[in-house]
Structure formats: C-alpha cells, structure tokens
C-alpha cells in the first residue's frame, strides 16, 4: 500500500480547513486520504492529532476550531464542560454549542447547535486556544437544558472554582433570565460554598428533599487539641454524624483505600457516627442513602 504524500508541516499535527490546505497547494485527492478524518464539513484532522486519552468533547471542539469565525465562541453547557464544571449524568450528552452576538451570525452546519445572542459586550474565556463563554453566563444559558439538581451542582462548582459568586450568578439571571429564570433562582437558593464534587451536591439535595435536616458542607472535624482529623463532606455537628460520598473504585488504589479506612476509624474514635454512601446507595426511587442517614440521625437522638 502506498503511503500518502506528507502534508505541509503547518497542517500535519492539527485540524485544518480545506480552504487552508488549498492555500498550501494540497490537492483534492490528498484531502480525501484515509489518514485524514472529516469531523465537520470543510475540516480535516490528521491521524497524528487525536490522542486516545484526550477528552472527547475537548477533541471535538479543537476539531471544530478551524471553522470558528472571529466573532463566534463555545456556548452554554459546552463552555461549562470545557472548564471542568460538572454536567448532567448519562444519558445526557453535552452538545457542541457555538454562539455569536447579533448582528453577527451563528454557525449552521451539521453536528453543531448554533445560537444567535442578544447584543451584549462579550465575556470570553480562552482555554487551550478556544474562545468560551464565561462560566457565569454559560450557567444561565444551560438553564433551558438542565434540571434543578444539575444546575445546583454546576453553580456549586462555579463558586468553588472561583469563576463567580452566587450574587454574580443571581445578577446574570436578573439581566437575562429568560423562561428558566424561576428554576435558576430556585437552584441558587441551594448553592453552598465549599462543595468539592457534584455527588456531594446531589447527596445533600437528596437528604434535604427527604425531609432530613440540612448538613454543613466540608466541615473540619478536630480533636480536643485542635488537630484536624478529617474534612467531612457533610456534617451534623449537633448530632455528631458525618456523611460522606465515596464513589471511587478503591480496588484500583489500595493505598488510598487504606488511608481512607484509617480516617474513618479516627472519625469514629472522635465519637462520631460515620455514614459512608456508595454510588449504588444513590440510585432508585427510594435511595438507600436517605435511610442510612436517617438511621444514623435517629440513633444520635434526632427527632426524639
């Protein structure tokens, strides 16, 4: 089998448009080569570009980037996912959203969801060379696509990562709330500072929705000498009950499992009840997590 002619160096390691390739003198036959993927109309990606361990959404955005007009940027849930803000769980799939402010035009091509926004001063973040909507604005934009708990988890992450405050998120709703404004204001009422994972958020919401008291978030348990014993995901100081979500597969990291087991023992030695919630405890119409927390609180004197 004949090897394809090498591409110009400028095109050999990154996605490129067909028009750019023609400017380099690359012919139609070479652009049809089997070593070039065609992720979008008018774009080619050399095999050397795609890494197996690369985030699929980031890869898709990098492949689309050559088609971006100077006034276009990644929007809503796409921008949130790219900066590491949690998105809804499976079966939801984050779409490839690209936007532009009026009077400029949004893209219209297969595989891309285009949005034309109101006239407004842009607030763009650049990540890996990609222009993104600022996460505070992107969170509001996701309001029409996501449910309550997903919006709370994302807002918790935005606040924790330092992208914005609850007041800034609230101001964004006030300025351009749209039809989902009521849902988003409700979500902001449940945002708490210091949350470190979306599952912590979902567990807290699950507990409160079941009628149990709201726990404190990431509270530090100390011994009588002030030495930190553990940072607790969710803590009921009054009843000395610690609730923690554990979604890792410890068989892959036995040393981490051993450290955690020692930590759980220290929590119990400090006179606290420790409730360890696993992934399967969160599933179903009557999740076991609620019963575990309720039982620990009752044993500690809540409701008596």
TrEMBL record:
InterPro entries noted in UniProt: Restrct_endonuc-II-like (IPR011335)
Superkingdom per UniProt: Bacteria
Full protein name: DUF559 domain-containing protein
Species of the source: Microbacterium terregens
